[in-house]
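User: I've been going back and forth on whether these two constructs are worth ordering. Before I decide, could you fold them both?

Assistant: Sure. I'll take them in the order you sent them. The first construct and its structure tokens:
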Amino acid sequence: MRLYINIDSIVKNAEKLRKRMLDSHIELVPVTKGVLSSEPIIQGLKKIGFTLFGESRIENLLNLAQNTDFMFLRPPVNHEIEKVVRHTKYSIQSSIITMKQMQRTIIKNHSEHKMILMIDMGDLRDGVYYKNKEVIDEILNGIEKDLLVGVATNLGCFGGVIPNYEIMRKFSEVSEYIKSKNDNVKIISGGNTTTIPLVENNEIGNTINQFRIGEAILLGTDITRNKKIDYLDQNTMFLEAELIEVYKKRNEDNVEFGYDAFGRKKEKPDNKIKKRGVVYMGEIDVIPELIEAIDEDVKIIGSSSDQTVLDLTNSHNNYKIGDTLRFKLSYGSMVKAMASPFVEKIYI
């Protein structure tokens, strides 16, 4: 298995998005966690002037160049706090308990690390719920003002909530309240890939001044809306896998179907004879439901740990053992392919 990554296409996507953001006075922070903060991609983005990147796994940062600044995109667990303070410029936080631990570590290490408070606007992942003023006040009163420099929110990634003008207006109100209590709060990080349409439609307001964007840069897509972003390049990467079997097969009559190795209930297929191919690629490497063969006549039937079964029946290509097929990736499959030690990464 080989994952081909076109750095130039990724960089051009970032350039196009940065221009759109700058027109609205919004800083763009490329989120590189989806590619494990790959050094070649980081360097490509640095060449065109990006200086701050988003990451959520401290392990991905330990071997990178020391002059690269990162925003840590989630509250760290206890054993990560020292490393997060040492290796990142900012961290997103949501709990007074963790923030006080961070504060002690920052002071002890004479660190310049700063914190950003995450506000939950309804996606119900991390963050202080925006209506919970009591908790917000507790944090504002319990953390030294010079250590808290921003407010953030996140939509789409967990709950699939699509941002709209009203949600962002409420977020801006919370942000203004926090700024009124702490004039060190300058970063209002209110957007990601799924928030881009609000910028395009001039519905973002003038409070928000930063977006954290990964998927649109890396893939040119918006999975929350299940769409391609028309002015971006979707040909940024593809996965290649080799056929290890090609046979014509049909379902047997009177066979009972239960659950597969991953606990999915299997439905009885039809009895038609089909040309089936098996590629060396499976659940360990991708999310097969979230990839698509570049040959549009090839369909994915299913998968196990390290094999994916394809329907080759309608393809005009006479596939045989040893041939390779190429697949387009969605965000989830990209993350899994990048993390798999069995997938060779090739930068083009």
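The second construct, handled the same way:
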Amino acid sequence: MAYIGKEPADSFISFAKQDFSTSATTSYTLDNAVTNENELALFINFVRQEPTTAYTASGTSLTLTSATASTDDMYCVYLGKAVQTVNPPSGSVGASQLASDAVTAAKANFFNADTLAADLGTGLHVKTADSGASANTSSDELVVEGSGTSGISILSGNGSSGVVDFGDDGDNNVGRIIYSHADNNMTFTTNGSERMRINSNGNIQIGTTTESARIHIRSATTAGTDPLVVFSDASGTTCGSIDLNASGNTVAYVTSSDHRLKENVSYDFDATSRLKQLKPARFNFIADPDTTVDGFIAHEVSSIVPEAITKTKDAVKVWKDNEVLPDGVSVGDNKLDDDGNTIPDYQGIDQSKLVPLLVKTIQELEARITELENA
């Protein structure tokens, strides 16, 4: 007799029955260990016995209050738990079947990448305990969220590399980020070819693996002009560029000058009088006292050719609204160094902006010379 009553239809439920060979004794051995007598139903001569009163059980030991006779018919049915190990049917275990602490951090810390489900549904959402985040509603496949600092770590061998691959739906590797522990280089690959690397010195190579400067950019062309760096405003209008002329082995530092960007154009102004206000000087920088150079003092030029000068005289650095503010500091407050002193925000000069004034002055002088010569 395998079951009491109707045989369960679900293979996940399996109540085992044990028949005993009786004798004049009170001690019997159970086939399956139990916590106590309440986990089994004992029948003697087809009469169910009362747990604790008629028998007790612990582990695999069954003890009767009164000894049986060899002619008695005795069996038990294990009730307290399923004693046959079976695989749950697919989809039969849900969140309600799991205790809140069933999956510990230690159990979740590692997984077998080969057996991780490929389809994550709405994505894998990792939240720190203090994030205060709501349920995962993101359509991203992986979200790491926290109210403080969050991140993802890739740990690999000392002589190996950490790799992030990007592939298409054909599982083709079309992009890669690699950090090599062997040489401490980080490389960036697209379409199977390395495009950029940051080496162990923090130097950047674009289009090349040769380190020759803090930033080394290699053009993709051997003839003609190749814009290496382009500057544009928020609307996308190009404001300038750094162009390489591969044919002439030169570089041009370009600022926009197209007529379509300008209005109120005038060619009639007194350049000589303005030029005479400039004060060319010789000086050395404080950081290099042994080197004397020619140049200008920025604020002395600002009223004559203002477009040549950046920032204002005697300015100091202040906190801006896009910066992380220290405690007790507001936007607009002065930035202070470790000694509590304000930090200078130095003026600069683009001396190429003086060229139009110089050219116009030469033209005016040439006209005066010609007039004197013809007098």
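Notes on the second construct follow. The first strand starts at residue 17 and ends at 20. The chain has four helices and 21 strands.
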